[in-house]
Structure prediction request, 260 residues.
Amino acid sequence: MNSSLATEDGGAPRNFITTRWSLVLTSADLAGDDQKARQALSELCRIYWRPIFSFVCRRGHSAEDAQDLTQDFFLMMLEGNWLKNADPHRGRFRSLLLKSLQNFLNDAASKKSARKRGGDVRFVSWDDWMAEAPSQLTVSARSLESWPAERLFDLRWAATVVEQALHRLREECESQGCLRAFEALRPCLGAEREDVSYPTLSQTLGVPEATVKRLVHRLRQRYRDLLRDEVADTVTNPAEIDDEIRHLCSVLAANSEPTS
Prediction:
C-alpha cells in the first residue's frame, strides 16, 4: 500500500490558483469578454450557491422562488456594476457577499427587474449545481427553526469551506493512489483522538497500527493546511485567517449541539 498519503511537503498542487477575490476582479476586468466573465462568475456560483440559497429560504421564500432569486442574484452580479465596485479592501468576501444579498432582497424594485431580466436565461444549470457536490452537512431542525437568516448563511458558508477542503484532499489522495485509505480515515478528521480505533483501521487497511497513526497524522495536517488555504482565499489580510476559522468552527459546532 502506498503510504505517501497527504505528503508532508504540501502534497499535490491545487487545481486552480485564483482566490475568490481574484475571481471577482477577473469577472469585472473581463466585462468586454462575456464568455470569460461568465466562466469566472460561474465558478463563484458553483462554490457559493448554498449559503445564498439558504439565506433566501430563511427569509421566507419557497424553495422554488429561492432557486430563482439565487440565480437572479448572480445574474445581477454579472450584469450590473457589483463586480466593478467590489473592493477587496472592504473586508472579507463572506461579509461583502452577504451584505450584497441583503440589499438585493430588500430592494423590491431591483428584485422585480432582476426576475424580469433573468427570465429563462440561466448561465449555470441549477440541476448541475445540485448534482455536482451534494452537501454532507445536516442542518439541525433547531437551527432551521430558530437561527436568523444571517447565521444560516454563515453555517452554509462554513460547510462550503470545509467541503472544498475535503474535496481537494480527496483529489490529492486519489492522485497518489490512496483513495481507499482516504475514505477509511476521513472520519478521523473530525473525531477526538480517543474516539479513533487504530486497531480497527489497521485491520481494515491491512497495515500496522503505527502506519495508520502516521497516515492519520499526515491527513489531519494536510486537511488543516487546505482549510486555511480555503479561508485565506476569502480574506485580504492574513491576520484575519485564524479569526475567520474560529468563527466558522463555532457556527458548525453550534449546529451540532444537542437540544436541551
About this structure: The chain has one domain: 20-256. Residues 201 and 212 are 7 Å apart (CA to CA). The longest helix spans residues 149-175.
